[in-house]
Every structure is written in C-alpha cells, then in structure tokens.
Design a protein that fits this description.
The structure is a single chain. This protein is of the alpha/beta class. It has a single domain, classed as Rossmann fold (3-Layer(aba) Sandwich). Helix content is about 50%, strand content about 15%. Strands 3-2-1-4-5-6-7 form a seven-stranded parallel sheet, sandwiched between helices. α1 (about 20-30) crosses α7, α3 packs parallel to α4 (about 110-135) and α4 packs parallel to α5 (about 155-175). The longest helix has 29 residues, at about 110-135. The chain is globular, with a radius of gyration of 18 Å. The protein starts with 9 loop residues before the first strand and ends with a helix. The structure holds NADP nicotinamide-adenine-dinucleotide phosphate (NAP). NADP nicotinamide-adenine-dinucleotide phosphate binds next to α1, β2 and α6.
C-alpha cells in the first residue's frame, strides 16, 4: 500500500454541505485535495466553496446540487463529472438520513427515500467510480455507516438496517480488493453534531454529540492506517462490541429501551 497523500487528488463527497460531509470537505481541502461537493441545496454548497477557497488557495472545488434519491441521479452526476473532464480518485459516500419513530408511524415515501439515499445512491456511485480506481490501482472509498450498523435499531428500524447494509457491503468490497491498492473503509460514527438529529425528529436532550471535526479527524487517521471499518470514539467502540457478548434478543431489548424515550 502506497503512503496516502490526498494532495492534487479529486475527492467526491456526497452530503458535503453540512455536518460530517462538510467536515470531510474542510479537512481534505486542507490536505490539498480538489473537491466535488454534492448536496441538494446549492446556496449551502456555494457558501462552503467560498469559505474553503479562501482557506486553501492551491485547490479547485466544484459544487453540484442534486437530489440523490431521484432515479438516475447518480448516473447523471457521474456523467456530468466525466463531461467536465474529471475523474474521481476518492469517493466519500456520506449523504444519508434517518428518522426516530415507531416503524408503522412513518409514511412509506420517507422510507423509500431513505433506502434510495442510504443504500441505492451509495451502491450506484460505488459501482460507477470503482472501475476507474481499479484500473489505476489507487484511490478508494469511505462509506459512512453508523454505530447502529452493528445491531438492529428499534425505533429507527429502516435506518438501522440501511446502515447494517453499508457496513456489510463495504467489508465485502474490502474482501474483493485485498490484492489491490484500492481501499474501502466504513466509518461508523456515534451521535455527532450535525443537522441529522433535528431532521430525524430525535430528542437530543440526553444525548452526547461528538464534534464532527473529531469524527472526521479520527476517520482519516483510520483510513490512512488501512482499517476496514472504524468506530469513532472509545465508548462507541465498546458499545459496538455488545452484540458479540449478549444474545440478539437481549441486544434488541437494550436498544429498544435506549431509543423509545428519544422518539
Ligand atoms: N449525526 C449523527 O449522529 C450520525 C451518526 C451516525 C451516522 N451518521 C451518518 O452520517 C452521514 C452524514 O450525516 P450528518 O450527521 O452529517 O447529517 P446532516 O448534517 O443532516 O448532513 C446531511 C447531508 O446530506 C445532504 N443530503 C440530504 N439528503 C440528500 C439527498 N437526497 N441528496 C443529496 N444530498 C442530500 C444534506 O444537504 P441537503 O439537505 O442540502 O441535501 C447534507 O449535506 C449520514 O449518512 C448519517 O446517516 C450520522
């Protein structure tokens, strides 16, 4: 494995306008990476682009506003990037959302969009970007999963299942890429400061939220260390081990008790 150097590489970040994605953009810009930033809200992307271009004068930034829940959006996005004569060295599949609620109380359209964003867009962008990385035998992908990837999440049932998918999918790709210099890692954050909880209708009064800069900083350290997955924070890491020592039913009961009051 070559020593990782983001300078002059092109990094595509989904969900780049806020929270964890915005922090990836900031830290990678400061490492000299050129950025393609994706979210739905163009004004947020433009604001970030202007901030980063002031901080880091030796990089370029492109912003593309697109809704990744829409059919063909990933394909159109990569066609647009190719049309600009660009190719993606690193892909950060970060855009995602969840909902805190009893499963049957949310309308199906929300679940449909959640699955389109958290799973379909992530898989399709990986499918579109990975062949070029393999051909060049360099680069890679960080898929943002969750601490919730390790066990079912009552009161976030679809979200938790989508994040279990992301971890499983990422680790499977690692198995296929063992003999290459292309590196896939799943990032499993715990509760983090961002717009996520507000959009998820979660009660955060008793939650401890990690700063997004710490989550991303530790993720990039783990990625450089060639880790297959990383859980941000020691307490979160210990919690991710609980399903290894407790029965599945007991685990589900613990998580249900944890999240019922937060919906
Ligand atoms: N925060 C946490 O506690 C936490 C914990 C574990 C895992 N995660 C994961 O971390 C990732 C980032 O979340 P965050 O916490 O940083 O949340 P956030 O602050 O809500 O950021 C979400 C980002 O995704 C973009 N986005 C949302 N829907 C989109 C769509 N349909 N198409 C394109 N972009 C879209 C948003 O911008 P627009 O609204 O403008 O599109 C924003 O840039 C997610 O995958 C989440 O599941 C978060």
């Amino acid at each position: 494995m070559n020593k990782l150097n983001f300078k002059n590489t092109t990094v595509l970040i989904t969900g780049a306008s806020s929270g964890i994605g915005k922090e990836f953009a900031t830290q990678l810009a400061n490492k000299g990476a050129n950025l393609i930033l994706i979210a739905r809200t163009q004004s947020d992307l433009t604001k970030l682009e202007e901030e980063l271009e002031c901080q880091c004068t030796d990089i370029w930034i492109k912003t593309i506003a697109t809704d990744l829940t829409r059919p063909n959006s990933s394909r159109n996005l990569v066609a647009q990037i190719n049309g600009l004569g660009l190719s993606v060295d690193y892909l950060i599949n970060n855009a995602g959302f969840g909902r805190f609620c009893e499963f049957s109380e949310e309308c199906f359209e929300i679940y449909h969009n959640m699955l389109m964003l958290n799973i379909n867009a992530l898989v399709e962008l990986t499918h579109l970007c990975l062949p070029r990385m393999r051909a060049k035998n360099t680069g890679g992908i960080i898929n943002v999963a969750s601490i919730g990837s390790f066990q079912p999440l009552p009161y976030q049932a679809v979200y938790g299942a989508s994040k279990a998918f992301v971890l499983s999918f990422s680790e499977a790709l690692t198995g296929e890429l063992m003999d290459t210099n292309v590196h896939v890692m799943a990032l499993c954050p715990g509760t983090t400061e961002s717009r996520f909880m507000e959009k998820a209708n979660a009660d955060t009064s008793k939650m401890r939220l990690a700063p997004a800069c710490d989550v991303v900083n530790s993720a990039l350290v783990a990625y450089e260390a060639n880790r297959m997955y990383t859980v941000s924070g020691t307490m979160n890491y210990l919690m991710s081990l609980i399903p290894r020592f407790v029965s599945r039913k007991r685990t589900v009961k613990i998580v249900a008790n944890m999240f019922k009051p937060k919906t």
